[in-house]
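Reopening this one. Same input as before:
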Amino acid sequence: MAEPLPRLRRLCLALPETTERLSHGEPAWFVRDKKNFVSYRDHHHDDRVGFWCAAAPGAQAELVAADPVRFFRPPYVGHRGWLGIYLDVPQDWAEIAEIVTDAYRAIAPKTLVNLLDTPPVNHLDKTGG
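Same output, byte for byte:
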């Protein structure tokens, strides 16, 4: 299994105005360097590798009930609806990308969330010049 941290880092840092810094000794990603939306966890109280992230209301309960091998209610932030995802089991990285993007949407201001829904501008005219 490939090292999950570089993959998770790429997903998080691809989102607008996201920064990374250590939080509680582990990598964490923040919107505008203020609001945390994803926190990596390596051996945090349970010798498991995974991450915790913000989630839409009801997502945590739904995903944990559907697949407790891959998802869990994290300590400290689980009561606020945050979702835990194990990365030491096989994961669907396309689904992980959606979960990370949804976590960003739950925390980021609307002006940044709107950037996710706006197609990139092509500055080249039809002749390529």
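So the earlier flakiness isn't reproducible anymore. For the record, The helical segments are 4-13, 59-66, 93-107, 110-117.
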